[in-house]
Write a structure and sequence with these properties.
Largest sheet: 6 strands, mixed
Helix content: 25-40%
Number of strands: 8
Distance between the termini: 31 Å
Strand order of the largest sheet: 1-8-7-6-2-4
Radius of gyration: 15 Å
Number of helices: 4
Order of helices and strands: EEEHEEEHHEEH
Length: 156
Amino acid sequence: MSIKIETTEIIKTDFNENVVTVLPVSSNESDLHNYSSTALSFWKYARRDIDIELLSEPKTLVEQRSGEWFGPMILITSSLLSGNSALVSVLCGVVSNYLTDFFKGKIDEPVIKLKVLYKETKSSKTTEISYEGDIQGIERLEQSILEVVKKGNEKR
């Protein structure tokens, strides 16, 4: 299992800061309507439990065939978390439940690849938390996100 944390940029900035946002496969202007097929199925699953939306209307679905599961890129903001401190835990729980349902009956343990972007609303700093591991490691992803959020709050 590995978790990588680094500063990144988001090209498109007109998104709703008060909901979890699923991002397209690329931030290039020409790709803003291209989503991974897992992004769409995850969004449909997750919207039952959390306030989540797609950044743009999907026009093309990118199919990634592999023994690995390439999850959607998920954006959360400091303004969203300031009113809902339990959201990170709920989001990671939804991801874990989705993956458990998705891989039910499979013999081999899949490798999960998932990116969560945390945008500090006031400073516009964006941190990317990349996770690669198994379903059980999602707890460590949650801890890493909370550490990034805490560091961002200390700087305010």
